[in-house]
């Protein structure tokens, strides 16, 4: 599985950028797709994820502001970010996980920088 992320860049505080992540390869095996982020000096953290069945999970810090949704036909997951805050600045990484017999395999896309100007 390969993940290609798009979006990010310099955004004003309060802005609404959208990130997208396109999966290719053996996408039928993917059970969850989502986004993590890592700010300088901090650990990588989960931002949002969407499971194959449609359930979602969000970090408390983004609940009510970010929305994750998926276009199954395009094997693409999107992260709509609203009301962006300076603390949202980070490198955002697309993530996907696949269940294989006896294990879970994780995949990462290249990071995309989100910089927030106040």
In short:
The chain is an all-beta fold. It has strands at residues 2-6, 9-12, 18-24, 30-38, 45-51, 56-58, 66-71, 76-81, 90-100, 103-108, 112-117.
The proportion of residues forming helix, as a percent range, comes to: under 10%
Distance between the termini: 37 Å
Instruction: Tell me the quaternary state.
Output: single chain
Percent of residues in β-strands: over 45%
Continuous helix count:
0
What is the 3D shape?
globular
Largest sheet: 7 strands, mixed
Would you tell me the overall average pLDDT? 95
The run of helices and strands is EEEEEEEEEEE
- Structural class determined from secondary elements: mainly beta
Rounded to an integer in angstroms, the radius of gyration calculated over CA atoms is 14 Å
What is the strand tally? 11
Low-confidence stretches: none
Key features of this structure:
118 residues, mainly beta, seven-stranded mixed β-sheet, globular
Helices and strands in order, then pairings?
Blueprint: E1 2-6, E2 9-12, E3 18-24, E4 30-38, E5 45-51, E6 56-58, E7 66-71, E8 76-81, E9 90-100, E10 103-108, E11 112-117
Parallel strand pairs: 2-11
Antiparallel strand pairs: 1-3, 3-8, 4-5, 4-9, 5-6, 7-8, 9-10, 9-11
Give an overview in words.
This protein has 118 residues and is mostly beta strands. Helices cover 0% and strands 59% of the residues. The chain contains no helices and eleven strands. Strands 2, 4, 5, 6, 9, 10 and 11 form a seven-stranded mixed sheet that branches. The protein has a four-stranded antiparallel sheet with strand order 1-3-8-7, with no helix packed on it. A hairpin with a 2-residue loop joins β9 and β10.
């Amino acid at each position: 599985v390969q993940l290609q992320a798009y979006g990010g860049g310099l955004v004003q505080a309060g802005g609404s950028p959208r990130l997208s992540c396109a999966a290719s390869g053996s996408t039928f095996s993917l059970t969850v797709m989502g986004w993590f982020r890592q700010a300088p000096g901090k650990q990588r953290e989960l931002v949002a994820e969407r499971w194959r069945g449609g359930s979602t999970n969000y970090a408390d810090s983004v609940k009510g502001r970010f929305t994750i949704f998926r276009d199954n036909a395009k094997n693409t997951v999107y992260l709509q970010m609203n009301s962006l805050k300076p603390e949202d600045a980070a490198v955002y990484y697309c993530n996907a996980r696949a269940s294989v017999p006896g294990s879970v395999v994780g995949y990462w896309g290249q990071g995309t920088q989100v910089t927030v100007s106040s």
